[in-house]
């Protein structure tokens, strides 16, 4: 018996085989995923550098590779 499941594209974006149907964007409201710097990390240079990285072109390529839209 065939089975069906709904998972995030990021879970299958780099997997070969199987079948997929990407739900068209017009079928749903945007799903936002944000990054924030918490108060406990405000003195962390590493945390601040990571946020800068997330806004850059290298991170955008990784984000898009896994099926997410970047920017926004």
Question: Which regions contain 5 or more consecutive residues with pLDDT less than 50?
Answer: none
Overall mean pLDDT stands at 87
**Into which percentage range does the β-strand content fall?**
under 5%
SS-based structural class?
mainly alpha
Q: What string, H for helix and E for strand, traces the elements in order?
A: HH
Integer count of domains = 1
> Could you give the count of β-strands?
0
What best-fitting shape do the alpha-carbon axes yield?
Answer: elongated
Subunit organisation of the chains: single chain
Rg to the nearest angstrom? 16 Å
Helix content: 25-40%
Cα(first) to Cα(last) distance is 41 Å
Number of helices: 2
Sheet with most strands: none
Short description:
This protein has 72 residues and is mainly alpha-helical. The chain has helices spanning 45-54, 57-65.
Give structural notes.
The structure is a single chain. With 72 residues, this protein is mainly alpha-helical. The chain has one domain. It has 2 helices and no strands. The radius of gyration is 16 Å and the shape is elongated. The protein starts with 44 loop residues before the first helix and ends in a 7-residue tail after the last helix. The relative contact order is 0.18.
Note the main attributes of this structure.
2 helices; 0% strand; elongated
How are the secondary structure elements laid out?
Blueprint: H1 45-54, H2 57-65
């Amino acid at each position: 018996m065939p089975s069906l499941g709904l998972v995030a594209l990021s879970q299958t974006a780099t997997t070969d085989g199987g079948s997929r149907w990407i739900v068209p964007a017009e079928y749903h409201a945007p799903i936002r995923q944000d990054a924030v710097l918490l108060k406990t990390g405000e003195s962390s240079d590493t945390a601040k550098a990571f946020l800068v990285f997330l806004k850059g072109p290298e991170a955008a390529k990784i984000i898009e590779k896994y099926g997410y839209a970047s920017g926004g």
